[in-house]
Amino acid sequence: MAEIYAAALLNGLLIGGVYALVALGLTLIYGVLHIVNFAHGSLLMVAMFAAWMLAELGGVDPYLALPLVSALMFAAGWALYRFVIGRVSRGEDRAILLATLGVSVVLDNLALVIFKGDTRQIETPLTFAMWEVGPLLVSVPKVISFAVSILLAALLWAFMARTDTGRAIRAVAREPEGARLMGIRPDRIFALAYGIGIACLGAAACLLLPSFYVSPHVGNVFVLVAFTIVVLGGMGSFPGAVVGGLLIGVTESLGGLLLGESLGPIGISLVFIAVLLLRPTGLFGAAR
Amino acid sequence: MTDAIRLSRRVALAGAATLAMPLVARAQPAPIKVGLIHPVTGALAGAGQRCRMGGQLAIDDINAAGGIKSMGGAKLEALLGDAQGRPEIATQLVDQMAEAGASGFTGCFASALGLAATQAAAKYNIPFSIDSGIADAITTRGLKNVFRFFPNNSTATADAMAALDAINKAAGSPAKTAVIVHEDSEFGTNSVKLQAAMLPKIGIEVKAMLPHATPTRDFTNIVLRIKQEKPDIVLISNYENEYVLLARTLVQQRVELVSTYSISGGGFNLKFAKEAPTVAENMIDFNHWHNPKDPRSIAFRKRVEAATGFYSWEHPFGYFAVKLLADAWERAGSADKEKTIAALDASTLSDHFMPYGPTKFTNGQNSGSHPVALQIQKGDMTVIWPDSFADAKAVFPRPKA
Q1: Which of A113, A257, B39, B205 could form a disulfide with A8 if both were Cys (CB 3.0 to 4.6 A apart)?
Q2: Of A66, A67, A60, nearest in space to A125 by CA
Q3: Is B353:B296 a contact under the CB 8 Å cutoff?
Q4: Pick from B224, B254, B271: CB nearest A4
Q5: Which of B212, B228, B245 sits opposite A213 (nearest CB)?
Q6: What's the predicted TM-score (pTM) here?
Q7: Superfamily per CATH, domain B154-287+373-385
Q8: ipTM of this predicted structure
Q9: For residue B348, what is the enclosing H or E element?
Q10: Cβ contact (<8 Å) for A260 and B211?
Q11: Which CATH number fits domain B32-151+293-369: 3.40.109.10, 3.90.180.10, 3.40.50.2300, 3.30.460.40?
């Protein structure tokens, strides 16, 4: 029995890594633009289809495709903000929110038209690779996705902390008017931050694909979890997204084991409500 | 004078045209309009489009072969409707198409849409030939205009257990215990209740029933529970996404099983066989399919694959739903509603390539229709039960990994 608990704990941590990466993009966009990106799930779906097509039609392994898909998603996110979201919203927060919602509706239905409602998947050489850890079988793709997610989170943190661009992003996030006086153009920073947030989804998509499926609705499967993580970790907080992701992964896994997979997902909601009640700013959030 | 001549010439021409009209009309009788109602957008779009395509192929074939001969070669004309997965839209489409002169309907892939649309068509007493839509209630509400050539739900579950029993016994009964994994909404819960009650009667003990939510992102916990129970078979009752994830996790966690078994398994199709060959190999599903021993089914599959690259049971379902109507019009010699319904009631349609017994309608349901047990072998779909239609021997128990 102890083995099952160990397996569930380990599995929860590993899945939490990818949750963290999805949430990282969301929290970055929130931190800078101060809006919840409703198109997040749909853009994850787009990235997964991009990775799936590269694998299915071009024979490119999703792990090798990761830099390319991330770059493409960065470009897509940047362009989406620059030419659609930024323009229609005219800087109004409420309008940005609605614009991202509109983008998600368009993307979801476009995917339905192109790919139909069917579920797609791929088998890669690593899909069935398992590490034997004592009596446990640990999925190699999950270990890889965990490790790469944590690495990317660290790189992103370093980028924000150590580079001029990162500092500019943080400056705009904190005080857009002040940043403008210092010669930073907030609209450019907004597009850049949105692009980076969406690039995270490109990486997450490539990490998920070897062990998950893709369908036009796949974004919904992750986006609610990502919202929960962002609130749990503290909106706009990087360490919060990572710790929150791991915490939610473990909660989900242990909840499923103890309460059954039918009642188990309740664990995520319970943690969410508890955090809102006891620490509304989130684990790492600063009081505003 | 010249004017008068011109006038009379015009009158003469008009007269000639009037005289010629009935001849033209006799040569080309008015087309018979068939309403095809399917969800071709929305979440059910893929399956709905496949049903529609099947229906259109049937119309093409009938027209190419000279239309309805007893009606002077009347051609069929499709009225296409998109029900978008919403029952109220299916109802509206029936009203619109009835207005446009539809003589018959086929549809609607999903039971919920079929229930709504058939009821709407009953108002006009227009015959409705169900393609996919398995709910018993579609034909048990006493609607005289509704006919289903294909199996219903109670047949499917009873047949599925008979098939599992036959396959198991033929192999010396290696399957003695089972774990049932099901999604926890009405669909999964109800269907496994039936299964759990029937399994002990065929000598299989149910060791555990494991419900899960939709969506479930990870099946490791469930598969570890299965490993603890050490069942001979795992019965699966859920939707496509969870079906493929569970199937994959069973392989990843190296669960030794005699087999897996599902009834109308959500993700069990040729796409699954192609995209996940390692996982799909030797999985068994009880589902609809054509009769692989009939060469026409092979030709039909090739024709669909050449056009879309993907073949599924929805294609012949859409096809024969239209054929059933056309056969009734042919025998009735008219598209009159009453006559068509009487002809459908008396239908013994045998010109088909489905794995069915003789066609006989009782209260609108064809009692000769049955699903079959399917197994993915070497990446392709094979029928393994009943023997009369089987094109492969069951791999049961499946070889140890």
Answers
A1: A257
A2: A60
A3: yes
A4: B224
A5: B245
A6: 0.87
A7: Response regulator (3.40.50.2300)
A8: 0.90
A9: none
A10: yes
A11: 3.40.50.2300
